[in-house]
């Protein structure tokens, strides 16, 4: 079967394109000039307010994939419809094409790509794929058994481990489901939220506390936070006095308090009493929150990192208080990820690919890496614009010496000692990498919007192969968002090669839509959750087989069948 | 899996011994008995007599008080079935053998009429003139207007095969008891209602009479009564008496003893269920009817009538029909049950027996039988029945342990016990056991043989001699041959009990028994006992005395127990019988006469018309390349053993080579070719009933068709092996094609190779047109996928290529297969494209037996303790794994990819075993990261 050339359109519905009426008109005229696309276009329509206009673009309705990833109510046509002068709504799923139509679509996609914020439309080059692939033979891939778990009715975004054999999942349908990681059995379904869940965290029980049950805190877009008892499924408490959606939750185990980050930062105790709160920080709200020593927390608010100090009640004052200590303004774009790496430093990553390592004690910049993008884009024949999303840092993971960053579609390993990238995989996935995690045996797992999960191994490079210099090719299209990196000086990489490499040792194909997150259990394998509403439990088949045998003989013994003589 | 007589042949064949390891001998309880009459020189499907009806049917007759015995209805209700068979005459016969129809009326000591709750009587009778043998089930229904309030009825299962009736007696009895119980329950209800109506009438009459008397009294104050008044008073008194009588009757009918249901009968459990079932049905359908007693009281619609003093019993009065006697609902239910019976016992006895044994065996293998079997509920029921209603008490049976553990011998014994020539059956069994302990076993068998059967048998002897005026004989043999009596006495000598004791017991049993089970045969013609029948006896006895356990002896002896008619064909063919058995099994295994009725009419008709004679038959056999002596054998003068073994349509070369069209409309094709060969096109279309009942034979037809298409697939595609390997190893096979019919056909065909997860679901999806999803691979192991010409299929293809690691893709349009490499030896044996097997169901059975073998390997592998558990704490996983690998390779003789098949089956077994207690567990999708290859024709 010949590989079908494909044009991938937006995965998520309701994604917006920023486009002026003028830009929209430009696309229209380009599209109209191409006969292969022309047949599938509607007329240019000026709306009554003269501020917006629209045309429809149908990339062959018949070529839409019926089923996979397409939801009910999907239109039969691709609407490029400026709802507001500056926005174009795109409503589509994967499109598959071949022949002359494809060329036209490709150009259109480039046009659309060039002006949107997120890489909704992507073009996978037909002839030459930069994506590293692995064949069907994956001897090192231990996951040879899978179990599809189905309970959610919308995108599953969060997975959280409760204990050795349980985990909870939550997503846009507002429910939390507790699962048994061994059997895949659905243990509990916690429903209480009316809108999608935006954050979830477990609250481990205190040793001294009489309540031994483990708690889960969930925050939702309905502006509530609910505390659940994940052993009984009971809703313990509910807070609904928030002014905005809580986007992140963190727990300060030491003080036995938890913090919620929305448009402001609130401090709560275990019984859900509001201890103190900050003033209004920003409309967009706190996007990430971590704890650092000396009773401080770091909140990522837009481009800024704000350090707060928590004042616990002392003999002098019985009041809790939270004070803003410092604002760090080194990032040039929105901060997407923020993690504690070790006792000495924490790392933040921004939308334009800045990775900054901070000192936890004096909050100064230890190291900064801004040139991920320079390693991208070598000699691709189709030079799309350097999309900021290709370098936005979605997620971090770390070990003692390295920080692993999911940068756009690629994976980077940044060594804290050497202060440089020691290994990278520029196109680790077809699409943005959403979550990464490190396994003990120098392995790395990544999941992506392209629906796949890949397993990598960090290896020392034997031979240093020369890599071509990046050719910095930005802003091909003169309109649309002006990318930040255009103003950055294109630094030459100190060294052309990296000492290590990330080798693909296996991939897990199962989800039909973007894999949002995963969770690795030491004993039970890997759990992935996805926008296709499914959770998949990946297991080591051999190991499971052995376990089943053990169970079998256990049961035989219980039934007394083992010693039956015939 | 072992579901046809031909498997008998397989157990005998030597080529199956060529296993890489030595198979231990089959445990006794698993051995399938040879067809007992195989030595007759006929194939097992030959007809026994010139019966005038084409196939078995059920007749319901009534002994009408007006016109005498009369047939009421037949099931199936089709004149073609019973043909020229004289129903009236046969009704007379079957109604005349009811000894027990006790009269209901005024018993001597009682003032009021007493209802007697008579048990049904079950009788077997034969009428050799008509060529008919029948299981007759007598029952009495109550009718207020009938003489003595009873109406005798009987249901008869009529078959041309005496042995079928005999050997299936237990099952027939159980099934008919259900039907009877259903009728009687409905009847009691209707009777109670009728009584209530009558009581109301009487009550009303009494009131009217009373007022009339009062009026007369008032009008007449002369102080003396007129004759009119006296008449009225008498009338009133009789009405009063009648009321009391009827009230008493009502009380009796309502107090129908429930212990009767529980005790004494063989299948009380089922009966109760049946009993309850209609009640529930009535309750749900009409809440007013929840209590029988309220039934008519609650209905205000009934207006009482005045009853004349004169008796209502007049001969010109129309008697109630059976449907009126019973509630309509119960009546229809009974009819359904009867047609179920008809369906259940359709086909050849040999087939019935083997399938019973087969099911019983399968039932035992509860750990593995879910994998490749499609156990239907019916079979469970049958086996349950056999278990729940053991015909004999087991306590003093030496073999009771093994018997209790496995129902097979029970089946045999129950079968044997209802044969009239009991001892021969026993000996046949011993030959099955066939080892050194022959004598010993014989003794134990005989002694273990339940008293009841012997008693009944002996009881019968007496019966026979008593009523021999009507020349009722036990198989008609006792009188004619002294040899038999000799063997009889011999047999009874082996029984430790003395005949005297037995006999006295018999009497006592007889008196306490409420349902008498009697085996009779009316055999008026003396010419039916042929000379060679006699002649064969001495040899039989010799065999018994010298106890030569070899198979030839067995067959010799079996010859003696076979029906006389068959013996005609037996002459000189004894030496050839083993081969004959084999070949007939191999060739004829497929024969539709097993499960499908259609061939039966053909034979009957051809017998009558003499259209089919031996030459074409011989031709056919040569065609198939079978030994000539077989043809000679079959050309023996017996008029019956003609075309049975070879369903004609199977031999039609066009059929074998036929492509897709055949199976699309296979049924029609079959009937066409059948009629073509038998040259009785006009009458061979009697297959409508079977299509009406999709449960039984249709599944066989399905199997056959699947087998045939699978065979075709194997011949047509050189890459059939890897495809089948994919299925066996749990890798989903996607059959991709444009034409739905072709895809469906192939999916159905290949589904015989798909292991099931559990009993309920077959992981096969015949036709999908939407793109596949990961869930589909978890759920389905064989998928028919639509290829759409439009670009929309791109999505489908994309998802296929995306999930290619979980699937093997068979592209029917391009004739390609993309799947992993297979280098094992298992599948080539399972699916040899040069196989000599030509028939669908033969192939199906071949597959099933191979898969059974595979299952047993998987079972061994799964449950071998030392393979999976570390011997000690320090043992590494690698060691355990290597032990497993060497076991699979050396002990189970598996090479290369075959290992994966067994491992996959083992996983399924484990999951299934665990699930049994844990409720629902999800099936997991197991896969390997192995490269796939593209195969082309």
From TrEMBL, chain A:
InterPro entries: WD40/YVTN_repeat-like_dom_sf, WD40_PAC1, WD40_repeat_CS, WD40_repeat_dom_sf, WD40_rpt, WDR41
GO cellular component, one term: guanyl-nucleotide exchange factor complex
Superkingdom in the source lineage: Eukaryota
Protein name as it appears in the record: WD repeat-containing protein 41
Main location class: cytoplasm
Function as written in the Swiss-Prot or TrEMBL entry: Non-catalytic component of the C9orf72-SMCR8 complex, a complex that has guanine nucleotide exchange factor (GEF) activity and regulates autophagy. The C9orf72-SMCR8 complex promotes the exchange of GDP to GTP, converting inactive GDP-bound RAB8A and RAB39B into their active GTP-bound form, thereby promoting autophagosome maturation. As part of the C9orf72-SMCR8 complex, stimulates RAB8A and RAB11A GTPase activity in vitro, however WDR42 is shown not be an essential complex component for this function.
Oligomeric form and interacting partners: Component of the C9orf72-SMCR8 complex, at least composed of C9orf72, SMCR8 and WDR41. The complex is formed of two protomers, each individually consisting of one molecule each of C9orf72, SMCR8 and WDR41. The protomers homodimerize via an interaction between C9orf72 (via C-terminus) and SMCR8 (via N-terminus). Within each protomer SMCR8 (via DENN domain) acts as a bridging protein between WDR41 (via C-terminus and N-terminus) and C9orf72 (via C-terminus). The C9orf72-SMCR8 complex associates with the ULK1/ATG1 kinase complex.
Subcellular location: Cytoplasm
GO molecular function: GTPase activator activity; guanyl-nucleotide exchange factor activity
Residue stretches of each WD repeat: 149-189, 190-238, 426-466
Entry keyword set: Autophagy, Cytoplasm, Repeat, WD repeat
Coiled-coil stretches noted in the UniProt entry, renumbered to this chain: none
One Pfam family hit: Beta-prop_WDR41
One BP annotation, GO: regulation of autophagy
Gene3D superfamilies: YVTN repeat-like/Quinoprotein amine dehydrogenase
Source organism (scientific name): Equus caballus (Horse)
